[in-house]
Design goal:
It comes from Leuconostoc kimchii (strain IMSNU 11154 / KCTC 2386 / IH25). One of its GO terms (molecular function) is FMN binding. The protein is α/β, with parallel strands linked by helices. It has five helices and five strands; from the N terminus they run βαβαβαβαβα. The protein is globular, with a radius of gyration of 15 Å.
Length: 180
């Protein structure tokens, strides 16, 4: 059994990113332990708090440390990743030298309601994960465009081909993550 942490970059209710994450989780083995990490209420990272971190930082770092691998799903905000996602990456990578993301395999998916499929956010996130020392599945690349036509009003993916593609990608990620 493996522990998979799911980090959804969108904190919007009924987000398409959450729907994509749910479709990926559906492709994981039944005995997987899956934890959705809540990033919506994390205080902004402040280096002044490294010596005496707030409980929210400490709890989040412990949650990250407890996972074996991560699935990240992000929308694109202004040609980058959402602030809440960047904040979560920063909190769990600090204080300097105490990066709890390090060595944990990652899968990155991006989505948008437009045809660009969050491609720039995808690459910005990958850049950060490289620096955080997270081996990242290279193929397949998961750029999910036009999500509003692939999902229902709750953000859940309803398109059969997309569901099958995401489940297959999750299965490939399982094989990749087991190498670490």
């Amino acid at each position: 059994m493996s522990k998979y942490g799911i980090v959804v970059g969108s904190i919007r209710k009924n987000s398409y990113s959450k729907g994509v994450a749910d479709a990926l989780v559906a492709g994981l083995p039944e005995d997987s332990e899956v934890t959705y990490l809540n990033i919506s209420d994390l205080p902004l990272y402040n280096q002044d708090l490294d010596e005496n971190s707030p409980e929210a930082y400490t709890n989040f770092r412990a949650q990250v440390a407890n996972q074996d691998a991560f699935i990240f799903v992000t929308p694109e905000h202004n040609r980058s990743i959402p602030a809440a996602l960047k904040n979560a990456l920063d909190i769990a990578s600090r204080p300097w030298g105490q990066n709890v993301w390090a060595g944990k395999p990652a899968l990155v998916a991006s989505q948008s309601i437009g045809g660009t499929a969050g491609v720039l956010a995808h690459h910005v996130l990958r850049q950060s994960l490289v620096f955080l020392d997270m081996p990242t599945l290279q193929q397949p690349e998961l750029y999910i465009g036009n999500t509003s036509t692939l999902a229902d009003e709750n953000g859940q993916i309803t398109n059969d081909d997309t569901e099958a593609f995401l489940a297959s990608a999750a299965q490939q990620f399982v094989t990749f993550a087991q190498k670490f």
